[in-house]
């Protein structure tokens, strides 16, 4: 099985590069794609750069050029649900785009014609994640992840996103990667570890917890890939 592992920032994939012995790489479309092995699986690993456009590009290249058969996203997120604390893991049941807005024309936020407001992640990968969490005795939260091209550090915007999407966490790539994978028929999974609470101190918390939270997520993803046949 050939599996894509995607992050947005170098810090989010660095721990995986080491564990996968990914020392071969190629540069394509201004990103670097690393090749390695985890258990019996071939892995293609990359960070896209931050945001929906870059992550869509990188996911598409992984699928169309490098032939990945599943995609797992690893990274950090801001917590919207008050039960989520820094370092906690959340897997996306579904993902949406909170900044997609043609409400002027009577459409709900996050919707454009012929698209879906919410895109659901792969059931088999979710099941593997739940088994890994149980075996490692790790608390794995499941919820809605909202994506947009904004770093949220503001209570009003945070509350707005919670209210309109019932979202539990917020980040800047999962929803766009979900669109690409669903469109191209590739099963996908999105995991995030909380780095901040999207409030007024989110920027400070993000800088403080990026590395540790990214590693929490990366280690979990590697344990999942070890189980994929
Ligand atoms: N990723 C991590 N924290 C975030 C936040 N507060 N807003 C958007 N993306 C994030």
What does this molecule look like?
The protein has helices at 10-19, 52-64, 123-136, 155-165, 174-184, 202-225, and strands spanning 2-7, 24-28, 31-38, 41-47, 70-79, 89-97, 119-120, 140-147, 169-171, 188-196. By secondary structure, the chain is an alpha/beta fold. The chain has one domain (2-227): Nucleoside phosphorylase domain (Rossmann fold, 3-Layer(aba) Sandwich). It has a 5-stranded mixed β-barrel with strand order 5-9-8-6-10. β8 (140-147), α4 (155-165) and β9 (169-171) form a beta-alpha-beta unit. The protein is globular, with a radius of gyration of 16 Å. 48% of the residues are buried. The mean pLDDT is 98. The structure holds adenine. Adenine is lined by residues 76-78, 151-153, 170-172, 195-196, 198, 202, 206.
Distinct small molecules bound, one entry per kind: adenine
* Count of folded domains: 1
CATH superfamily: Nucleoside phosphorylase domain
Q: Report the major sheet.
A: 5 strands, mixed, barrel
Helix count equals 6
Strand runs, count? 10
- Radius of gyration in whole Å, from Cα? 16 Å
Mean pLDDT: 98
Q: In CATH's first tier, which class applies?
A: Alpha Beta
Q: Which stretches are low in confidence, meaning pLDDT under 50 for 5 or more residues running?
A: none
> What is the general shape?
globular
**Fraction of residues in H or I helices:** 25-40%
Order of SSEs, N→C? EHEEEHEEEHEHEHEH
CATH architecture verdict = 3-Layer(aba) Sandwich
């Amino acid at each position: 099985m050939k599996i894509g592992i995607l992050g947005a920032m170098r810090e989010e994939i660095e721990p995986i590069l080491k564990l996968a012995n990914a020392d071969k790489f190629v540069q394509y479309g201004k990103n670097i794609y690393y090749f390695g092995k985890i258990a019996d699986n071939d892995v293609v690993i990359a960070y896209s750069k931050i945001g929906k456009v870059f992550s869509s590009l990188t996911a598409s290249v992984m699928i169309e050029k490098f032939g990945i058969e599943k995609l797992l996203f690893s990274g950090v997120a801001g917590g919207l649900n008050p039960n989520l604390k820094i370092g906690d893991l959340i897997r996306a049941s579904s993902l949406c785009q909170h900044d997609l807005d043609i409400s002027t024309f009577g459409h709900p936020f996050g919707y454009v014609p012929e698209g879906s407001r919410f895109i659901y992640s792969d059931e088999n990968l979710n099941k593997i994640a739940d088994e890994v969490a149980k075996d490692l005795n790790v608390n794995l939260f499941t919820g809605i992840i909202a994506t947009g091209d904004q770093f949220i550090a503001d209570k009003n915007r945070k509350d707005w996103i919670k209210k309109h999407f019932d979202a539990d966490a917020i980040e800047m790539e999962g929803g766009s990667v979900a669109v690409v994978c669903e469109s191209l028929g590739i099963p996908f999974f999105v995991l995030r570890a909380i780095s901040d609470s999207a409030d007024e101190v989110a920027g400070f918390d993000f800088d403080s917890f990026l590395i540790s939270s990214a590693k929490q997520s990366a280690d979990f993803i590697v344990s999942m890939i070890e189980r994929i046949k």
